[in-house]
Each structure stands twice: as C-alpha cells, then as structure tokens.
Amino acid sequence: MAAAAMILASGCNRLDVLGIVINRSDTEARVADWLDYNTQHSEPVIENAPDEYHVYSCSDSHYSGRDSIVPQGEKDRLYKYITAERNDPMAIFAIHAGDMVNESGETGFIMTEAALQYNAKTQAKNDPCFLVLGNHDIYFDCAEYFKKHFHTSTYTVTVKTVGDYQDLFIFLDSGNGTFGQRQTEWLEEKLSHRADYRHCFVISHNWLFRTSYDYTTTPAAYLPQDEQYAFMDLMSNHNVDMVVMGHFHRSEQRQFGGVQYIMTNNLNEEEIAPSYLVVSVGEKVNYEYIEL
Predict the structure, then answer these.
(1) Model pTM greater than 0.85?
(2) Of the candidates 264, 211, 251, the residue with the CA atom closest to the CA atom of residue 99
(3) pLDDT of 277-290, one tens digit each?
(4) Cβ atoms 70, 268 nearer than 8 A
(5) What residues form DSSP beta bridges with 261?
(6) Nearest to residue 207, comparing CAs of 291, 125, 97?
(7) Which residues contact 18 (CB under 8 A, 6 or more apart)?
(8) pLDDT in tens, 32-42
(9) CB contact at 8 A, 108 and 63
(10) Exposed (0-12), middle (13-18) or buried (19+): which is 164, by Cβ within 10 Å?
(11) Pick the CATH number of 2-291 from 3.60.21.10, 3.40.640.10, 3.50.50.60, 2.40.10.270
C-alpha cells in the first residue's frame, strides 16, 4: 500500500493521494449527464469554414490556486495558446484535451475559463475552445465543477466548409481510464455515419500506448487492454484520420492500423518546454508542434 501511494504521488504535483484513490466519479453516470446535456443543446456546428483550415490542440494546463506555475493574464500559457489560435486567420477553433486542474476545488476551472475568455484588444476573432476532461479533472469530486463550467465531455463538432465538405470531430470522456459501455455505443453510432464526412478526428485525454519515457503516471493512464484493442479496431475500421490525446506531458506520435495517434505536450510544467499542436485540415491532414 505504501509503495502504491508513492507511485500515485509521483505522477502528480503536490496532490493529496487520498483524493485520487477515493474517486466517486463514475464513467457511466458522467456520460449519461453529458448525453442528456447534448439532447437539450445542439452539438456545435462550424458553418462556412474554408476548405483548408487549422485546428489547434493543447492539454495538461494543470491550474492550481495554491501554486500555479504560470501567472494569470497575458503571460499565462493557456492564454498565449488561445491568443495564437485566434490570431491565425486559417484557424477555426481550439481544443483542450484535458487536465485543466491540479487540485481539489473549483479554482482551476475558474482560471481555465478566465484564460479562454475573448480579449478584443489582443485577439482578432472569438473562436471557441472545445474541451474534454482528463483524469485530474475528476479527482477530488471535481467532475461537477467541469460540468458547471464546460457542460459536456462526450459530443461532436461538425465542420461544414464553403466547398460543401463536412469534417467530424468526436470528443470522448476517458477520465477514469475507460470509455464505458454507453459512450462506446454512442461512439459506434457516430462512426456508423463516417462515410458522410471528408475527415474524422477523435479527441480524448488518456494516451493509449506505453511510451519510451521513464515517466510514472496514475492508473488512469491506460484503457483495459481488451478495450484498447477494440477501440483501435474501431478507429481503423471506420477510417478515422487522427486520434489526439494528452496526459503524459510529452509529444509522441504513433501510426497504427492506418490511423495517426498524436499526443500533445503539456502547457504547464517547468521541466519540459510547453508546446501545442496545429492540425492542418484540407485535402490531406498534416500537423506540427509549436513551442510556446
């Protein structure tokens, strides 16, 4: 038990281990809430996008009211990220692939919302940022704060271009290290319409592969092996272009079954240079990492 506690603690920054071990947030219950929200509110559609456009993605900003590594305001890394996206004339929206917070309470979510607020003085346009929760966003009963501020973590964003193309972005809750039955069934239904779209992207938090890095993380890092294989088969069988994830605070890429798997870097860690991902969507899909 002591060894397990040390492992858990080493994957987090100054966190109360008990708040991680005693996690009362259940995937099936959360997904039911997310899908209920979706039925009451239309899922986002981006109209009249150019046929070639950019989407930005980041993860792991890990805000903490106690010891935030970056200050709030214009030097804030999440603010700098969203400002770069909103000043890119080809960009149409941004993504945050989870782990907004780093401790109990609502403060980290409030800080995230503040950093993403539109600033007309420094930002050319008010593009949205679409989010999914990560494992840290459910510890300490924080899922209710995510729900309060960001409403849903299981949903789609459809992009309709001026040239009559459609692209599909699917956002998934993997906070507990599982997609769960109901969310998987929902995902399968969405992918059954894959032929209606030019490109298809899936965004979630927990990276699927064991990395080459000597980096300890929490048990929420990996899906159960049978679920992982089933998920990757689903991605390949439905010709998903790219799966974007975070969690490990490292950039990494894997090609498997014709699908590009991309892990974004962190936005809030002193030991590793923070970066974000820019995905170029057009006839083909390309990407690059940009350091902050």
Answers:
(1) yes
(2) 264
(3) 999 999 999 999 99
(4) yes
(5) 243, 254
(6) 97
(7) none
(8) 999 999 999 99
(9) yes
(10) exposed
(11) 3.60.21.10
